[in-house]
Design a protein that fits this description.
The complex is a heterodimer of chains A (322) and B (326). Chain A has 322 residues and is an alpha/beta fold. Helix content of chain A is 45%, strand content 16%. In chain A, the strands form 2 sheets. A 6-stranded mixed sheet of chain A has the order 1-2-10-7-8-9, with helices on both faces. A 4-stranded parallel sheet of chain A has the order 5-4-3-6. Chain B is α/β, with parallel strands linked by helices and 326 residues long. Chain B is built from 13 helices and 10 strands. In chain B, the strands form 2 sheets. Chain B has a 6-stranded mixed sheet with strand order 1-2-10-7-8-9, with helices on both faces. Chain B has a 4-stranded parallel sheet with strand order 5-4-3-6, sandwiched between helices. In chain B, strand 4, helix 5 and strand 5 form a beta-alpha-beta unit. In chain B, helix 3 packs across helix 7 and helix 4 packs parallel to helix 5. The longest helix of chain B has 17 residues. At the A-B interface, helix 12 and helix 14 of A face helix 11 of B.
Chain lengths: 322, 326
């Protein structure tokens, strides 16, 4: 918790992260049937409104600003093809240091462009090499200080500041749902809750096409699960990260698994009712809350990001599952 | 000739409506700032109740009714004001009758009915809207009921309510040197202009208008109200009305300039905000963003560095997104 409080101070003073709005999802009347009888209030912590449109700038900024300035000057690097790479690259650009990014060589063009827009220098490698960097926390050929996208303690602490803000805005929150990919967001936020308000139920949200946390929790140990790629590209892998799993099962009350259909519907609902663009991973917590999986009371859903490909968004708006 | 509103009317409105409205956030974007070379501050009224700033004026008006007399509020609108008034009436336990063209889309009718208001259909002409609204008020009178017409923008109570947008913006961003506001009937523009200039006479108040509906531009340039002679063709469906009689004195007194934007500029701005800021805004709101992005704005106002932009609403017809075929 101390690390998270320190992170809060760091981020408060830095211009790279904003204190995002927390709004109530109105007009739940028509979805009341799904939620069932009882009192449910769904709130949205809009991390999709951060610079680079995801919460990742919190972890990236905290990690970078916690470094010795001499070390920081030499630049940073990471292994990621998604929002963390964009968040790190943008923050590095704002600070004025280099950012090298290891990406799997099948990374699509639109994601490459997004990273390059922020001056990220891309290093495409075969998938196994890339996965190796994730499990080994680095790659000897990559220049700069390596920041792990999920399990770096300063990244998790940065993520935890979301939990502090939620408690400031809704002190009597009953449940918090965070999408679970690498687990860094869920662990950061849940650590805050367990330290400051243990009665708050902390849930991970996963999609049924790739739900390793749910599988591992059921099995009581780390297991691999079936993995099917989907439009929800921010979360969902074959397995959980070992260094995260022990922390995760201590601080989380469970994993809520939603379907791709429910997730796509939640993306559309957020556009219609909340007037924000969320990506699949960002909408998954909302899908879980609407399906009644988080129970009753005041439920805060962390809308983690908004980086959804335009064509996929159009399909969602047409009522399809991309 | 009635007196114009002053700042204290807007401040009173703010107190009156504070427990009903959302104090919406101001968001910024380094991408858009880089594009225009200025600091832009976006007031997110798309997050307001019913998804548009209109709720402020509506609840301010309904809150001032004498509830003992069991009033029935009446208006003609199929857009954001219809929903705003329906919700305001529901919250104050007042009956609402919305006159709507029979051609209004199903989702707009459903939204109004969802708030408990009733709908009376009219023909899709200006004449029919007015006549049907007047007929409803007359009908109510014969039943011994007190029908209260609350216009979408030509009502001092509504204009004062819309002015609260500027109160919040200037409280949150003290260094604002300008505010860009989309203009249709002039309710928001008038209220924001009055409020901003009263708080800071140096601030620039700039209207943003579709070039296809340039009545405000013509009026401001000539000094005389010049309403459009025909319904305009613009994607900004909330701005298809002309600046009205009640709003005009505020527009004339407080507005410094009107920037016109093309249909393509509106669509581009809307897409930019959706994609880079992840905010869902409707075309009428995009008009203000488009104005901020014009070369004209950059060239003419190079001294303005801290620009407020009102994102007036986020109610979009998802089946008709302008870039579906872009």
């Amino acid at each position: 918790l101390e690390d998270i409080r320190k992170a809060k101070e760091t981020l408060r003073c830095c211009p790279y992260v904003v204190r995002t709005p927390l709004i109530k999802l109105q007009n739940l009347a028509e979805t009341a049937a799904a939620v069932g009888d009882g009192d449910v209030e769904i709130y949205l912590k809009l991390e999709n409104l951060q610079p680079t449109s995801s919460f990742k700038v919190r972890g990236a900024s905290n990690a970078m600003l916690s470094l010795d300035p001499e070390r920081l000057k030499q630049g940073v690097c990471t292994a990621s093809a998604g929002n963390f790479a964009q968040g790190l690259a943008w923050t590095a650009k704002e600070i004025g240091v280099s950012c090298n990014i290891l990406i799997p060589d099948h990374t699509p063009q639109n994601k490459r462009l997004a990273m390059e827009r922020y001056n990220g220098v891309l290093h495409p490698v075969p998938f196994d090499t890339w996965w190796n960097a994730i499990t080994q926390h680095g790659d000897e050929n990559l220049h700069g200080h390596f920041i792990h996208p999920a399990s770096d303690p300063q990244v998790i602490a940065g993520n935890g500041t979301i939990g502090l803000e939620i408690l400031e805005d809704i002190p009597n929150v009953d449940a918090v749902i965070t999408p679970y990919g690498g687990g860094g967001l869920s662990c950061g936020v849940a650590t805050v809750m367990k330290s400051l308000k243990p009665a708050v139920r902390c849930y991970a949200a996963e999609v049924e096409t790739a739900a390793p946390l749910s599988a591992s929790l059921k099995a009581g140990c780390m297991t691999c699960c079936d993995y099917v790629p989907s439009f929800v590209d921010g979360i969902g892998g074959k397995s959980v990260l070992p260094e995260i799993f022990d922390l995760a099962r201590n601080v989380l009350d469970g994993s809520l698994v939603v379907s791709l259909r429910q997730t796509a519907d939640a993306v559309k609902l957020l556009i219609e009712k909340a007037r924000v663009v969320a990506e699949g991973a960002g909408a998954a917590p909302v899908a879980a809350a609407l399906a009644g999986k988080a129970g009753l009371g005041k439920i805060v859903c962390v809308v983690s990001g908004g980086n959804i490909d335009s064509q996929k968004l159009m399909k969602v708006l047409e009522g399809q599952v991309p | 000739m009635s007196d114009l509103l002053n700042l204290s009317d807007v401040q009173l409105a703010a107190e009156r409506i504070s427990s009903y409205v959302h104090r919406t956030p101001i968001m910024t974007s380094s991408t858009l700032d880089e594009q225009v070379g200025k600091h832009l501050y976006f007031k997110c009224e798309n997050f307001q109740k019913v998804g548009a700033f209109k709720f402020r004026g509506a609840i301010n008006a309904v809150s001032q009714l004498d509830l003992e007399s069991r009033p029935v509020v009446v208006t003609h609108s199929s857009g954001n004001h219809a929903q705003a008034l329906s919700l305001a009436a529901k919250l104050k336990c007042v009956q609402a009758i919305i006159v709507m063209p029979r051609t209004a889309p199903h989702c707009k009718r459903a939204a109004v009915l969802g708030y408990g208001a009733s709908i009376v259909s009219c023909e899709p002409t200006e004449q029919s809207r007015e006549a049907t609204k007047d007929a409803e008020i007359a009908r109510l009178r014969t039943c011994g009921r007190n029908g209260e017409y609350i216009s979408t923008s030509q009502d001092a109570r509504v204009i004062a309510g819309q002015g609260t947008v500027a109160l919040e913006m200037l409280e949150d961003v003290k260094q604002l040197d300008s505010i860009i506001v989309p203009v249709g009937g002039g309710g928001l523009l008038g209220g924001v202009g009055l409020t901003a200039k009263s708080l800071n006479p140096q601030i620039k108040v700039i209207a943003a208008e579709p070039v296809n509906a340039a009545d405000c531009y013509n009026s401001v340039k000539s000094g005389q109200r010049q309403p459009l002679l025909e319904p305009p063709q613009t994607i900004a469906d909330g701005l298809r009305v002309s600046v009205g009689v009640v709003a005009w004195p505020y527009v004339k007194k407080y507005v410094d300039d009107v920037i016109l934007v093309s249909e393509q500029e509106i669509k581009d701005a809307m897409k930019l905000v959706w994609e880079r800021m992840k905010l869902v805004i409707e075309p009428s709101a995009a008009v203000a963003v488009a104005a901020a992005l014009t070369q004209q704005f950059r060239d003419q106002y190079s001294d303005l560095k801290h620009v407020g932009v009102v994102l007036s609403g986020g109610n979009v017809d998802l089946s008709k997104l302008p870039w579906a075929d872009m």
